[in-house]
Design goal:
By secondary structure, this protein is mainly alpha-helical. It contains four helices and two strands.
Length: 108
Amino acid sequence: VSSKKASAAETKRRPVLSLKTAPREVKIRIKALKTEAKHLKKYGVTIALQQPQGMATWTAALQGARKELGVKGFKPAKKGSRLYRKAKEINERLMRRRRVQAKRAAGA
């Protein structure tokens, strides 16, 4: 541990991306979404709901892979590992099922 005091730049909190400071393309993309397709975070940031939904399938796949392989505790899913390959396989199945359900809903 260094006895040097941390500078203000090191301890400064990183700002959250907001529509005020976001690049023009991001503003247009988020503003163009319908109200049901976007979500206001607690810091005042507007995000597209698609972002967290896409992550949900990977999280579910990783949990399923951990259960199937009997992994307990912290185990990172590094590329090439058994856990990663199993999670990727489950994720592909989930995504395929999701696409089929979306097609059925669009056709009905």
